[in-house]
Amino acid sequence: MAQLIRIPVVLILLMLSCSLSGCFGNNIFTEDKKGIPGGLTMACLSSAKYTSMVVEIDHDSGYMPEQSSIDLLKTRLQEVCDKPNGIEIMLTETDFGQSGAWTADDVRQQAWQHKSTDPQTGSTLYWQALFPSGGYSNNDVLGVAVDASTVAIFKDAIEEAEGPFFSRPNAEEIENSVLVHEFGHLLGLVNLVYTSPVDHEDKEHPGHSNNEESVMYWAVESANLGNIITGQLPDDFDNDDLNDLAGMLSGEIPVSDQLWLP
User: Fold this and answer.
1) Residue 176 falls within a domain, yes or no?
2) What is the pTM of this model?
3) What average pLDDT does the structure give for the chain?
């Protein structure tokens, strides 16, 4: 049994990401081809049209993700997305020409300006992660999902969240969890484009799991700044998450707001 992670206010988002307004950005419910987080869930889960997948990671100079984060993300996607022709990670050093605070609109604008191709191109599905310099407009946000194919991870905020105590997770471990968490939102978790038959959504933090052993968990334990974080951060989907994804793929769980359906 994993230890319950205790999170001080100053590290509210160390676990995984943010409040609803930060985690999913603002004005995400657009009617254009960008879609909403979870809008390309079926395109990822199914191989009926998209038989391969590319995750494009655009990063500022000095902000390349950790190799462990890249490897873990690829593994987690391979475990749930049926892509017989493989999943590729494509790293591109990018000058976003922006520093300081980012908004969700900034992330979307920069992402679509620098995408190598449309997310739905031939038989390949393209998802994208930005690793920019600077932080989010909400200082507590470590990662954000802004549309159906795009997330951003803020390494500066992650490094600031790393605690001075040996028992706290380091920046690499935090980045691992945050990256998988945000791509979990692109997969529609939790209840973003469907309604789970199992009550595992945190009612006070919609879009997140109520299980502290899920990478989709949202935890705010204490406002006591003297608390420290102990234990290992979750970096995997739990059984309820996996069952939701399987149910969507099989058709047992209805899915909404999709840019593509098999």
Assistant:
1) yes
2) 0.87
3) 84
